[in-house]
Amino acid sequence: MGGLRNILDIRDPIDLSHPMTSSTIHRYVFTTIYDIYDSKPLPRAGLRGAAALAITPLIPFNKTYPLVSLILPSTIRSYITSSISYLLGPLLPLFSLTPASLTSLSLLASAVRLASQSAGAVSYDAYALTDEWLSVTYDLLAKPAPLREIEVGENPFVGGRTNDMSGMSTAETYMANHRLYENAHIVPAAGTHDLEAALRIAGLLYLKELLPDWPRNIGGYAVLLTLLQYHLESIMREGLTDPALHAQKDRESAVSRVDSSSQRKATLIFLCLMGNTACLFGNENEGRYEKGDPYPRDVYQRCLRNVLGVEGNCEGAQMRIEDLVQEEDLLLLKVLDMRNIKGEDWDDRVAMQELLVEEL
Which residues pair with 188 in a beta bridge? Predict the structure, then answer.
C-alpha cells in the first residue's frame, strides 16, 4: 500500500483527499494489499488489514454514496442518535468523535437488520452498503487519533516472524498467522483515553461480526482484543468500575455537571459482553479450542462483577440479576443490539448471568 501511495503521490494532479479517488481505491484494493518487509507479507493499509492491526490506513476514506441507514424510519434514527449522545456525552472528552462513529455503526447495524427481516420489502444498494461499511471502519480506526503505536515494518504475528513454514500443517500455518509473537509491540497510542479507545475497539469487533469477511483477516482478533483488555484493565485500576467510588468522583469533580454513574455502568456492561463475545467468536473462527490456546476472558468477568458490585463465587448472581441490572443499564446494548451478531436467541441478562458464574 505504501508503494501504491507513492505512485499516486507522483502522478499529479491525483488528489487522494477527493472522495471518489479514495473511495475507489479502498473499494477495489482493500481486500488484499501487502508491503514487503524482509520478504514477509504484511497487511498494511487496506481497511480490513488495518483493522486487524488496529492501525490508521495510509489512504483516507471519504464517502461517495447516500447513507444506507436512511432506509430507517426517522424515529429510530433519532432514538439511536439521542441515546448514544446521552450515554457517552458525560463520559468522553469534550468534542469527542467517538459518539458519532458509534452512532453511524448503530444506524448501519439497524439498517442491515431491517432489510434482513423484511423478506425483500426493504433493500439497499450494494455499493452504498460497502461505502458505509468502509466509512464506519475508517472512522473507528482513525478518529480522533491512532489507536496504537506501531513500529516501522512491524508484523506482530508469529507467521510474519517464521521464515519457513513449509513443514507446518495447514492448521499450524493458519494459527501462526493469527497468534501474536511473545514480545509483539501492542501498545496504545500516547495520550489515549481508555474508555474512548475501548469503545472504538469494541465497535470494530462488533462490525467485524455484523458483516464478516471471508477469507478472514490475518490476526483479525488478536491485536484488537489485546488492546481492549489493556484499556479495561486500566479502567479497573483507576477504580472507574466501582459504583460507589466513581459516583463519589463524579460528585467531587469540578468539571462534571451530571452524575454519570448510570451512563458509565451501561457503557461498561456493553464493553464486557462485547469483549467476551468477540473472544468466543475468535476462539471458534481461529480454531483455538483445538489448539488449547483460547483468548483470555477473565478480564471481562472481573470487570462485569465490579460494575454490578458482585463479589465471591457469584452463586446468587442468577437469583439477583433482575435487581442488579435495570433497563437503563442496557441502553447501549439496545442501540448496539447483540442479536445483530449473535442471532435472535441472544438475551442480555442471560449472557450476563452466564459470564458472572462461569469458571474461568
Answer: 148
